[in-house]
Give the backbone structure.
Amino acid sequence: MEAVIAFANTNIASATSMITWVFYDRFMNKKISAVGACIGAIVGLVAITPAAGFVTIGHSAFIGFCAAIISNITISIMKKSVIDDALDVFATHGVGGIVGMLLTSVFANEVGLIYGNYQTFILHLIALILVLIFVSIGSYAIYYFVDLLLPLRVREDQELRGLDLSQHGENI
């Protein structure tokens, strides 16, 4: 029975997220695209992963809806910033996962916040903060040591000539 619930929740969250993403794009005067629909579906899958076997169908739709809106807004904000995330990995997987994790602690059957159990929500918040600290420090350390061995940023003259020519020897 639990496998059926997890299967249904996964499908509902993904479909809801995809539809929400497409409608939100249109609402924001962006073009509706197949890529946007696929990104929305992926965000829904990421968000429902921690909750799939522990929430109702209605809750999974809500999780997919929230994750799509929040991830879409995050992509818009990151496009305007200096952060280089060409594939929007953090906005889709990172933010989608954070939304899913927090909403799991809100809706989880019998132990969620809506059932009067605030301990699960507090534990999820603590875990989120600890993971963010660990990942930030760990990622920076790995980046720093790799950059010492093999510089990750090209020189300005190479960037001006174009990376196809300077890095790959291809003249388009």
